[in-house]
Amino acid sequence: MKVFYRDGEFRLAVTISHLSERVGVDTLGRPKMTKAPRVEGKLMIPEKYRDLVRIWLAVGLPYTVELIRTPEGRYLVHLTFDLGGAPEPDFAEGCLALDTNPDGVALCNVGASGQPESWPEGFSIPYPGNLGKYEGEFQVITYPNGFLYIRIPDLAYASGFRRAYLIGVLAKVVVDLALFLGKPIVLENLDFGKDRLDTNREFNRMAANFPFAKMVEAICRRAAKEGVSFRLVPARHTSTIGYWKYMKRYAVPVHCAAALVTGRRAMGFRERVTKELRQLVARIKQHLAQKVIPDMPREGEGMTRRVGAMRRLERKMAVHNGPTLGQQEAFYSVWHDFRELALALR
Description:
- The protein has helices at residues 47-59, 160-181, 201-208, 212-226, 238-250, 254-266, 275-290, 305-320, 325-328, 334-344; strands at residues 2-6, 9-15, 22-25, 31-33, 38-43, 63-69, 75-81, 95-101, 104-110, 139-143, 147-151, 185-188, 230-233.
- By secondary structure, the protein is α+β, with helices and mostly antiparallel strands.
- It has three domains: 2-85, no CATH class; 95-228, no CATH class; 275-344.
- Strands 10-11-9-8-12-13 form a six-stranded mixed β-sheet, sandwiched between helices.
- Strand 1 (2-6) and strand 2 (9-15) form a beta hairpin.
- Helix 1 crosses helix 4 (212-226).
- The N and C termini lie far apart (54 Å).
């Protein structure tokens, strides 16, 4: 029995070996058997386990399958995974956090305190020897305080085989970097409901057509092969939190700031609404109140998009720092309103 993932769904293939028939013997006297029939069907897996099973299958770790027939004629499938094959990440020294994008990945060297650490002395990423069709095919943009962006322009537009090859090259570079740092890898799970703050149409079209899950699977597969531990975390609100809290503080692109948020989330740090962020919201509100546009209603006289986002945000900020980590990551948390405000101010 074999479980596999194809065309967006899990499937189970069962080979019925006892139905194979003997048709003779070969020259060495061994019995020759007909090919056993194979039955294939759709496998329903609970939503909360789908990412785990998909990563497990992509990495190629062992599992066992037990098929049970119920009195009603239905079949239940019990999957058993050997968790000893996947090392548990240790965040005592921090982690290497990623934010995946259609043209590359943003990385952040997160320390044990949840803050970015500078790259070690003599740190550099070697140029892959199997790339070099043209100058700039593989770009490494380094920022202060432990941030960098690896950009491969062809990744977004290449054909299937070429893209798969470039994803493999990128996965090797990321895992080698984690081995050099001695830290686990943290990246987004396969449910890419990302709250991107990009308004560029070309980038949005590129992001909509890019197979993010293949990049995550390639990195996880390479990490398992090299013995590097990794953890997947929800990607919800990472770009929004990075935009408001860390982008200007560390003078990095929003993707690098989102990578920092991803690493902090895996390590269990809560993203609070700080005093500085509250003061920034107050200044924005004051600016909106003073701004006079003849063709648009002023604050208090109508429900413009900016005023509406501001009012909802003020109501939620008062109670945001109290809920648990899971409640702060919920879809309609305060960060959802911060995203709406950011888009309204553009």
